[in-house]
């Protein structure tokens, strides 16, 4: 019998295309979810890791307007950005390059986080959502847009191993192991900023009860479907969301 030497590569190629297509769908759902939650407006982008060398970023347009089936772009983790990809996607590159456990990244414009950052403050751990960023969200103290590799490197140096970095007057970057977790953590960051701003109005007479390290470690759990329930709540109604409870956006 003659061996078909082309069968295996063809199947592998088909599998790769299917993986990219599924990742593209997942990124679209996440992008629209973040926009519906008010965490981005005309500006913002999100991405998912494909492998050790590539990630896929959503289309370069307002995330809430990304249509069903609208393709994103595969971007190399090492190398120049492809044509048409937004300049601040360099931030995604830096995170994927340095942190192999990261599977998804968002560059967002959460409004309360932005307001708090103009005071050179980032959200404290005052309630549950804030504990996921202990020992504290780093601040990139520069309101300028990121338009060079050197700037992107410096921002992600500041971020370190934290789940987020806040950019003064210029939004935030959030990273997590999965798309679902990235979306949930972006919402947590904004909710922590909301609570912090509310507390600041009263703190002169009623000092805030900031959770300590041990309390943060105990509270920042993923048990009880913490991430999954927030994902279900935020993504409900998206036109490309799969119905199957076992269908993952990892």
From TrEMBL:
**Which processes are annotated in GO (biological process)?**
pentose catabolic process
Q: Name one GO cellular component term.
A: cytosol
A single Gene Ontology molecular function, please? metal ion binding
Cite the Class II aldolase/adducin N-terminal domain residue spans from the record: 25-197
Task: Tell me the domain of life.
Answer: Bacteria
Q: Which UniProt keywords apply?
A: Lyase, Metal-binding
Q: What is this protein called?
A: Aldolase
